[in-house]
Each structure stands twice: as structure tokens, then as C-alpha cells.
Design brief:
The protein is of the alpha+beta class. Helices cover 33% and strands 25% of the residues. The chain has a four-stranded antiparallel beta sheet.
Amino acid sequence: MSYTRFAVYYIPADGPLAKFGTKWLGWDVARGCAVVQPDIAGLTDVTETPRKYGFHATLKPPFRLAESRAEAQLITAVSMMAAGCAAAQCDGLALTAMGRFLALTPQGDVSGIGRIAETCVQEIDQFRAAPDAAELKRRSKTRLSDRQQTMLRAWGHPYVMDQFRFHLTLTERMPKLAIPEWKAHAAAHLPALPAPFVLDAVALVGERSQDGRFELVQRFALGG
């Protein structure tokens, strides 16, 4: 398979939460295939953007591979990074409105999760091709703080390091008045959420050149 970009995700292991996420979004990132969504009017539209990424939480945002690097080298680097990085946990996950979209977010002390994300951003960054002027301009059009602008220039993405918030996205941005209805729909289909929530593996994923959807390349247990 040919990939245009790579990223490092958290993808839930096989089980009720992973099954919910793949069905809700209509794409199984772990298996690289479409999934029939629940019969809820409007669900296809409200999940259109997150569908291509699959049910996940981003740890290192999507990046183009540097010309001097190969995919096999990237796989080895992520494997080595994971082996030296300790797992983390928090109290659990909760269904949350993050501004105008829905997500599952961690509850309690999230410092360990932040540590893992920082490790992913820093240790794999040598494989990231520098963003071109068009990419930086597109990112800069959003409302970014000075700190987020600094992160964008340093790491190619504004929402990393101290600007990072771990979340598993469930919907597009939507009108505020629609949030309660969609939160009720999601809650009705959610399984029991993990408590505690343990982040003990990371996944290297690739954006397929054929259709722009992301799929699992390889999963790595955290072992530090």
C-alpha cells in the first residue's frame, strides 16, 4: 500500500469500544475497510470528516515523510520509541462536547497521556518533511494563539505539546443547538467506557494514496 502521510495514533484494541467507534464513523482504521453505520438520520453527514481518519486519538499529527527517510525506517523508529516509553492511565473516558464537536475525553490526571504524546511528537519528528508555505498558510488561517503559532512553526501542527488535548473524535463541528441531540444519540450507542482508561499501545497509521483514508500500518505496545 502506498501512503501520502503518516501519523501516530491511539487506536482502541479489539473490543466493545473499538467496535462502537468503527460502526459510528463507518470506517475501520485497524482493518482498512468500510463498516455499515447505525441507522440514525444524518449520521453519515455528521461523521463525514472524521470518517477518513477512523476512530482514534492523535498522538503525532499527520505528516509527509521526509525525502531522505523510508517507511521501513519510520516503522523501526516508532517501534524503538514505543519500547522505551511507559504506559499511562487516567480515571476513565467521558462523552464530551469539545467546542462544537463531540469526542471521548480522558478524566482525571492526564499528565501521563501528555507525556506519551510529547514523546511521539519529539522522537519521530526527524521523519517529518517540513511543511511548505501553502500548508503553513492554511493552518495559520484558523484562530491560533501566539503559543499555537509557535508550535506550528516548531512541530508542523499547532495543537501539540502543552497545547495538546487527547480526544477520540466522534463528529464534525455542528451548530450548538444540535449538540444535545447528537450527544444523546452517541450516548445511546456507547458501551460501558473504560475506568480506568489505560494507554498502553500506539499505532503507526498511513493515509492511503488511493482514497485518502487512514489505515493501521503497525501497532506497538508501550514497554518503558
